Queue: 3 jobs
Job 1
Amino acid sequence: MKVKNFYKEFGKRLKQLRLQANLTQEELAEKIGVATKTVSYWENAHNPITLSKIPIIADVLGVPIYKLFIFLNVEEKQADKEYITLLQSKTGEELNTLFNLIKEFQKIK
């Protein structure tokens, strides 16, 4: 997938999840600390998303981070199943490492 197409698909997915959360662009912008225009730019693929905002957006929308990227030709229920299967295949130590990585990623706010 080309970068421009990635931004376009990410923007569509962001809008879809925002609407599912019953939020306006203005409300989402306020909750994540950006201008309303920034959310519009992300949704319309005019500007790339700031990496540090991804965990904040996921938190505000009430979804795991990976669900922001479901547009990558995977059905959401299938992605959930694959995610669960992947986690079940990991040892306790691997899960702790993964959990710690996610916690560190979430600190990037």
Job 2
Amino acid sequence: MELSASIAEARWNVCCNCNRKGDLLWKVAQPNGQRPKRLLRTDSQCVKIKINHLICLYWGVDGMPRVAYSEEERERIRVALVRVGLDLMTKQGIQHTTVEQIYRRVGISRTFFYSFFPTKEDLIVETLYLQQPKIVAYARKLMADPALSWRDGVRQFLHACCYGEKNGIAVLTIEEQQLIFKRLSKESYQMFREKQARLFGTILESFGIRANRANISLFTNLSLTVMVIRRAIPDTLPLFVPEAADETVEFQINAIADALEILKEQD
């Protein structure tokens, strides 16, 4: 979506209103294939000209045009940035995804990108928020599947999260966690922890387990441990045996399922 293409061209022409020569006219592309509208620049003051494409043209004191987006358009761009970021991060990893890749795919400039997100880390956190409803929906779908036992549903859910790159789920490595949360503000970090707790609590409830603070904390640590270890072998944890990585993950998933089953029976 190349929003800047809404401005088709600028050229010197005859004013369509007063027939004066020498004024700079802009031809702005209209939706639905309509004929481009010609707009007149007036030199006496800074002028805001509304058009039908949710974009406004501003003329500055230097005579150069400025493009301002409506709140609705800005929100669409923001959502597009988060969605593209999540797509790239799940496919190629967070460390290998650059800000340039994201804003180029959306079709905006680097400067405009930073008007939405002060840092790359702020965008990464938003991508993690974006995928939370998808994760919850997947857990509920497994629990509602009559072909799966409760235990098989839990195991399949944890397996999909551990191998997130194959299932469109972004999982932070140890290094990524350290880098991101070192740069987040205290308020952003606190908000993330609260949303994370709500996420794991909702998943527990979908498993039929009471989501009290103790259960949420245990489930969060157990789940993240197996996900992080799977991503860390062998690069971050070189003393681990990579040939046994998958078997290690399966063992841990079964152990988590055992622990959750005990909690479920207690409830």
Job 3
Amino acid sequence: MVIHVVSTCLPCYFTFPVQFQLNSNIFHTYLNWQLTRHTINIDIFHFFSVPSSSPNNFTVISVSSTSITVLWEDVQEIDENGVIIAYEILYIPLETFNGKLVPELVNTSASNSSVTLNNLEEYVFYNISVRAYTSIGAGPFSPFITQITLEDSKLCNVLCL
């Protein structure tokens, strides 16, 4: 946040960064600063919104025949538009052996930067994406990454015959 300080009494104009911890969607305050015999009035407005972009450096790694780990870094600070409070991971199987093609969502707190998706189907491709939340709502999903779970030797014995 940037504060613009303008005084009608002094021939000056100041701009300097200030950080606030806010709990409301819109913050407005009116401050009086005394400088010798002059008063400078400061109005501060800050509007929160949803994140403008998805988390950075989103990657996925197959760790077993039924698990994929999803990793990401924070949303760029300029695109956060408030305090990031949570992340949401969307994963969709592209084909399954049991016919279940239902999208699934996993939520995690903002303190996490990875999630392991468990109980997936063996040797199946998944489209996976992640997005961030502020108190106002969800930002955009990242582009999908397609990842396949690893092959289990039991499955190969059935399919390879």
